[in-house]
Amino acid sequence: MSNFVWCHGPSCHKSHTQDRIRGVKGSKVLRTKKVQQTQYNSGERLSMYSYFCSQGCYNDFANTYVREVIAIAPRTEALETPIEVTKVQDTYWNNQTYMRTEIKTVDN
Ligand SMILES: [Zn+2]
User: Fold this and answer.
1) Taking 90 as the threshold, does the pLDDT of residue 51 lie above it?
2) Which of 3, 4, 9, 25 could form a disulfide with 34, with the two C-beta atoms 3.0–4.6 Å apart?
3) In angstroms, what is the span from residue 96 Cα to ligand 1's centroid?
4) How far is the CA of 19 from the centre of ligand 1 (A)?
5) CA 89 from centroid of its chain's CA atoms
């Protein structure tokens, strides 16, 4: 049994690719692609690739529905991660020294 969902890309059925062509001569259509549900994109591995056939279709969906998507978890203030910043002397491939900034996350 085939287990799939239709790609949620709002323009998936408008892409001119051979694998979207369906129907018989005289009444052919471009059809939304199927997204197979496999062990790699379902269950624990559920991701955008469970619902979209491509990065392009995902971007089309996200750009079309960005207001609705943001409304799910709006960010009203900045988040912060406590860190410690130290300067560390390091060496290039030619043994010339330089100072680099090292950032470590501080657990609270
Ligand atoms: Zn698609």
Assistant:
1) yes
2) 4
3) 51
4) 11
5) 37
